[in-house]
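We treat protein structure as text, and this decision shapes the records that our systems exchange. Below, we set out a record of this kind in full and without editing:

***
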Amino acid sequence: MIKKYSFKLSQKIFLLSCLPLFLCCFSCTTEKKAATAETEDELLVRARTIHNDVITLDTHCDINVNNFTDSINYTQDLDTQVTLPKMKEGGLDVAWFIVYTGQDTLTDEGYQMAYENAISKFDAIHKLVEEIAPDEIELATTSDDVRRIVKAGKKVAMIGVENGYPIGTDIKRVEEFYNRGARYMSLAHNGHSQLADSNTGEKDSIWLNNGVSDLGKEVVKEMNRLGMMIDVSHPSKEAMKQMVALSKAPIIASHSSARALGEHSRNLDDEQLELIKENGGVVQAVAFRSYVNPEKDAALDKYRTEIGKEIMDSLGYKWVEREDFHNLSPAERVDYFAHYHSMSDLRDKKMATIDSLPPAVNVSDFVDHIDYMVDLIGIEHIGISSDFDGGGGVEGWNDASQTFNVTLELVRRGYTEDEIAKLWSGNLLRVLDEVQSIAENIQEKNKEVE
């Protein structure tokens, strides 16, 4: 017994004698870790390097044709969220400019007005790249174009069509839009079109097509044949499911986020996200504050709306709720948004003077959606969009000049340069390549049949 006790005592004495050495080693290790830990300045430099090295691509930037004239255009620092100076300042390489047409009556007159509106926007984009600033920005229709133009030091314009309504009943217009540069199109917007039902049908459960109409199904086939990506951001869930089943090529959601984090019909639920993964497509998370965090935005929006209404009234314009935009004619929308942008600047200045406002939806909230979708369906199926000049923007990424802040937040969360490159452009361009490759195969088979 005495011998056993003596042995334990000797062990204790030995351990106690070594304690200073252990503490010294622990202290040295801690100091080494502290010495090698990345400082904030170093993180910023690393994020900036990554941001400069990858191709940054935003799949949804709305336009106003009045900003594409000889006297007023994107070479100037306009009060729009996207201009060439803002793209340069923020390091945004590629902007998909949107040929958007609001939903109107399903009549020959309505279709013709919508078609004319669409053509005016195509023409505006071409005027920018061909006449106004050909030395600064160029139109791309393929991923190779994108890389070539970026390498040449210029900005890139691409074209997406938001709402297939302008097609009317003439399916030949799909190819016309393709020839004008469109490389994605949605079959509906806010309101059911002749092609597909809209997500807005969730509000009253009234549907027009029970998904995709017969004409819409033909449009899907035609888009596959041409090599135009199918955009499912605005159509209803049933329409989206039918398009996935019909399409021979991967699809995209050009500006939608995760419904699990933001309960809004414009976001995609987990089933829809899984369908896009199975389809090989990509979801472009959108920095639209009321989709990103509806509850947080609603708290602040109460103040924002009250102040906005007061300013719009002082400008002599009646406030229009977003869900009522479809009741405005195309001309009325253009006029309204011109004054809305003026109001926004005045409102932002006034709100900046008010203390104790609820917190704004910010870049961190936005990247939460990217994290969620990456975890659910994999990083190969997620991209980035803003919906700038169409209501988009969050604190920290409220115009193209602040684009770096998205990359910075991704770096903070541990994303690697390769992963960030996929999120910013790699995934979307991969889908575009696949869609165009499938189109080539379809066209070859059609030739063999002929």
